[in-house]
Queue: 2 jobs
Job 1
Amino acid sequence: MTRMNLLLMMLFSLGLAGCQAEKLELHEVTDTTYEVGQKWNYRTPPGQELSYLLVTRVEEGEIDGETRTIVHVYIEKLSIEHPDGGTITSIPHMPFTKEALSKSVYSLFEYENDMPDTEEAYRKWREAYERGEASVFDVSVEHAINSVIYTAGQQPDGS
């Protein structure tokens, strides 16, 4: 199993600890705060201060019985040591509730025109979501990244 597949499986599992989706339909929407291509600084875990996130998709879906905005992001410039000796430098797809993301970001600094390819990661998440096997993070980005760090075998403080 590749590192990316292992990471995607871990993220699906972590997503289940967030909001559980009850209605499995998603619709792309226009949001007043988040737009595809925005680069945001976010409150990072220690040791990840160079990291930023890129908005890749904005949708609405039913979560816990109510319609919520879901903001999909690509996390870039990470430095998470993996037990096999590699380094995780990016996460191609993480879906957050708008509320959780809004508590995490603090400055919009750029718009990206040359978007990374996140379609495979998004497609895998969406298929799992539609089967009820994946959900949306309703925790801060920092908390979600700390979970990745912990799963990769490091302590969340970067050691």
Job 2
Amino acid sequence: MNRKLWPALLLLLAFAAPLRAQQPATDTIAEAKKHSPHKASVYSAALPGLGQIYNRKYWKVPIVYAGIGAFTYSGILNRAEYREAREAFVYVSNNETYPTDNKYIKYQPNDIISIRDYYRRNMEVSFLLLGVWYALNIIDATVDAHFFYYDVSEELVLQLKPGMQQPTFPGSQASVAPVGLTLRLNF
């Protein structure tokens, strides 16, 4: 083929391909995208706080990360103290004499065991609570997504006011009318 025909042929194919692929217009109305609780859960599981952003509850994101930061900090701090107490126990139980800057070597082995167990328990609880906080983040995003279209109108009213009842049966000569509270719910 001629070299001058190749660009023309490519141009023709480039413009002809989309014309064949187009669909005829329909008169159906496109459905509005529904807010998906599954999508909110997956987002929140992938990156904590992303499900809250998807639900447009931006104010919850700092709370999620404050909890994650607090539990992570507590776990790391307790892990460092646990390791130091464990090293002190090995140092004291082996009657080592080399210089060390471990603050727990001045205690007796039984005391060091108690210190070590205390920090290990705190470390484990901190990391366990971190996992619970992560799960609560996902649950919160899912529940918020379920209630995304929930209508809280101004007509939903709960009133609590004092009430007084007159005796209802005939012939009653009660000197004191019953007093109480009336709870009224309008929706």
